[in-house]
Amino acid sequence: MINFPVLSSLDVDDFGLFPGTPDAPGLHVAFDHGLTLFLGANGLGKSTLMQMLYRLMTGPFDIPGLDGSESLGNINTRHTPLSPAKRALFANRDAKGARSASATLKLSVGVHKVVIQRRLSDLSLLDFQIDDTRQPVTEQHYEARFLNLLGLGSLGDLILLLRHIVFYFEERRSLIWDPSAQRQLLRLLFLPPGVAGSWLSQERTILELDSRMRNLRAAVSKEEEVASRAAATVETATSTRTELVTLEMLQLQEEERRDALEARMAELDTFRQGLRLELLKVEQQADSHQREYERAKLAVIRASFPKSSDTTAFLLARLLSDRHCLVCGHAAPEEAVTTYTTRAAEHDCLICGTALQPDSFPGVEFAGRSLELITSELSALQQQQSAARDNVAQAEEDYLAAAKELVHLATSYEQRALRISQLIKQLPPDEHDRREQLDGLSALKRRVAEMKDELTQRQEEFSSFVQGENRKINHFSESIKASFGEYASGFLIEECELTWAPYSARVGQTGEAVSFPAFGLEMTGADFVGATRRSSPDQVSESQREFIDLAFRMALMEVSSAHQGASSLLIDAPESSLDAVFSNRAAMVLARFATRKSANRLVITSNLVEGALVPDLIRLSKADREPSNHVVDLLRIATPTAAVRSHMAEYHQVYERILEAALDE
Question: Mind telling me which InterPro entries this protein's record contains (predicted)?
Fold first, then answer.
């Protein structure tokens, strides 16, 4: 049982949207018992007024996700500060940013009178009074004292109460078809604040534990995959290590072979250079002897023709030295050259080849040596030259062979090094690290199991706790059904009744379902035999849907109100979802709420529309007063829009017709 806020008055000052009149600047409204109707055209601030009344009580806080389609059952109802954009809701409706604007709401909570004043630019608290006593102006103090007066356990519960019971916004949940929302509202309406808070605390603990357990379990699954891959790596590690050892051994052997080859090549290069020098020396000696040999042969030729002209000697000299015959002009045959050379060397007659005595050519020597000796020395040098060339060729061949082997060795070394690198990467992590990884995984598994056990225990305890509290809430079910029946019968033609229908749902995403308190709806219909359960808003018409849900809220307010059933109900634009047939019935139902309790407040905003709803509502709600006494004329108070300025006279005519119609019986 709680105390609902019963509105007394609203004062809005220095707010551009509501400049008021010269005689009465601003907007000032007294909420007497019964109906207060804000009447105006589009754009004159009707919805802004509703939001202002709502935010004066909630302050700059809200519940994230409350506007979405997420189930209220598992939503975190902890309040959080509004975003800067939402906090500037009213500042954005004022050309001056509402810098000096404020709103003051006076209301009753039980037997206490409360004053709440906030700055409209940022919703900060300016004044807070209880029974004419100023209170510390802090949100923390306001929250503690105001919630205590209401009989609520948290600011989140206040937001839920206002948004889903007290205010009937255009964007709203259909409580009768939303058991998860009923679960939260029945908790805060019919359980003592401490018990309702304990319920909420246990739910939050389970939700957080469920979320942490699922996150940790997901992390364990990933770690298990990593460990599984590591285990597979270990199984193949033996063959990898064997191949790695073999390759590394071959690599060491080739490194030794490479060092030996490089040393061998250095030796071969030195040896090759020595042979090249030796060959050069022999070639120089042979060339020198060759020239000496040629000169010696010419000397013999000259000596062989002592009595003839030098012409013959010149012809033979050219034949032997240049292989050219000056007589015929042709190249001399090799036979002729050999023949004359042999005859000269053997001291035979050069022309006929007759053997002559050695002394037949006295004085034919060259540099003190005979032609025979020179010929012999030249032959020896030529043999030495040939041998030196063979030695150099062999040395070159040996050097190139060593260089080729070294290149082959380097290629195989590089290829083996690449394979060794690949094998090293395939090796499993260090055994110590792997053991620590497995130990860590085991610890995580144990922690998941512990959290699961703790979660199961808390879910069982919570289920038992809720089962006990269900019986307490069920104690009010007959009163709620009776109240609903009275409201619904005034609006619906079909027979309609509530049923006590607890529903099962998990808290979080794991564990056993818990049976929560909830009401269902049964209704007759043309196509149904008897009253039938209507589990979805799609199973009734739009008009039926709106007022079934409204009747349910009224019944909850009436039964749960601790102070003589007094409460406030604020509805934004009820005419939008009603057709002409149901408008009179809707006026009767709303008027019944407004007049049922002497302290009830019914606050409605409505467009200037033709039809019976608004006049009927005024007439049925406040028959003992002048209609204009409980209608707030926004055409007069609010800043006119371009459409209102252009059609002001027509709007006033509609306004006057509505008031006149309210006077008709």
Answer: P-loop_NTPase (IPR027417)
The per-residue pLDDT for 175 is 85
Tokens at residue 645, please?
């300025």
Phi, psi of 330 (to 5 degrees): -95, 165
All residues at 6 or more sequence positions from 255 whose CB lies less than 8 Å from its CB, including other chains: 413
Q: Are 124 and 45 in contact (CB under 8 A)?
A: no
Burial of 374 (0-12, 13-18, 19+ CB in 10 A): buried
Q: Is 523 helix (H, G, I), strand (E, B) or coil?
A: strand
Q: Rounded distance, CA 228 to CA 595, Å?
A: 73
Q: Say if residues 547 and 579 touch (Cβ distance below 8 Å).
A: no
Q: For residue range 366-408, list pLDDT tens digits in order.
A: 667 777 788 888 899 999 999 999 999 999 999 999 999 999 9
Amino acid letter, 60: P
Distance CA 578, CA 581 (A): 8
Q: How many CB atoms lie within 10 A of CB 338?
A: 11
Look at strands 601-607 and 34-40 and give their pairing.
parallel
Global pTM value:
0.68
In angstroms, rounded to a whole number, what is the distance separating the alpha carbons of residues 371 and 357?
15
Instruction: Spell out the residues 6+ positions from residue 246 whose beta carbon is closer than 8 angstroms to its own.
Output: none
Alpha carbon distance 302, 313 (integer Å): 6
How would you label 29-63 residue by residue, b for 16+ Cβ within 10 Å and e otherwise?
bebebbbbbbbbbebbbbbbbbbbbbbbbbbbbbb
The total of other beta-carbon atoms located within 10 Å of residue 127's CB is 13
**Tens of pLDDT along 35-70?**
899 999 989 999 999 999 999 999 999 988 776 666
